[in-house]
Design brief:
There is one protein chain. The chain is of the alpha/beta class. The chain has two domains: 170 residues, Rossmann fold; 93 residues, Magnesium chelatase subunit I, C-Terminal domain (Helicase, Ruva Protein, domain 3, Orthogonal Bundle), CATH 1.10.8. The protein contains 14 helices and eleven strands. Helix 1 crosses helix 3. It is globular, with a radius of gyration of 20 Å.
Amino acid sequence: MAIETSRKVIDEVSKVIVGKDEVLEEVMMAIIADGHVLIEDYPGLAKTLIAKTFAAALGLRFKRVQFTSDLLPADVTGSYVLDRKLSKFELREGPIFTNILLADEINRAPPRTQSALLEAMQERQVTIENETLKLERPFIVLATQNPIEHEGTYPLPEAQLDRFLMKIAVGYPSAEEEVEVLERRVRRATEDAVVKSVATPAEVLEMQAEVERVHIDPAIERYIVEVSSGTRAHRSVEVGVSPRGSLAMMKLARAKAWIDGRRFVVPDDVKFTAVPALCHRIILKPEQWLRGTQPASVIKEVLDEVPVPKVT
């Protein structure tokens, strides 16, 4: 069954990533919900490794782009190059022509290069020299950024942040988990971790199709809308969640239900997905930033205030 495949993928990745089962489940949810992930955290917390191991376990093609200040859009999308032997232009595909694209330190590239990802992320297509080319499915962008280094960076505009289905943080491991990381490294006797492929691109597409068939009750749809509306009316929020945020919460809630082996969504699925789905979609008032208020705490307040529906 496809559900068993998703669990096998998470188990395989967890052989490399220690003690981050919830993070791995969130990434898997985004992949089967056909969405993109922004991972924001400090250096050295396995953000890049998570992307590489998921691609290997899913049997998907993987490419990585290190975003820098001098990166051009053509470095991401590719361009047409003159073939002198054939006297014609041929397409040299960029790294965006893959299944999983790791956009490493995405906020280090200038806006012009960042915008090269927008069409691909939303439309799953690329336009080069007025020619539109479809990207192979599945196509998932896993982007990383460092929250503490701001020199030489270009903050992602809200329009591009909104294209990410979820934003997550990895977090530091516990002392025991960090010891386990060291012990696994000693046992491997090499930097590279071996990950088996336990799925295929066709199975990933099958999982995405099955998630679309997960039932969601109208009462839960209303609950999702009320949570989004609650962010717009919150006293600490300047700009609340758009309808795209409601759609993201619904997609992730269905993916969560499916991974848990259910064909229907319950309110707890919405609560589980609300913070990663919405925290990057709200803009706090300036005085709240000065007070150190975090978007996640605002969303949790909204969840506490919105009545939970009773679903039979």
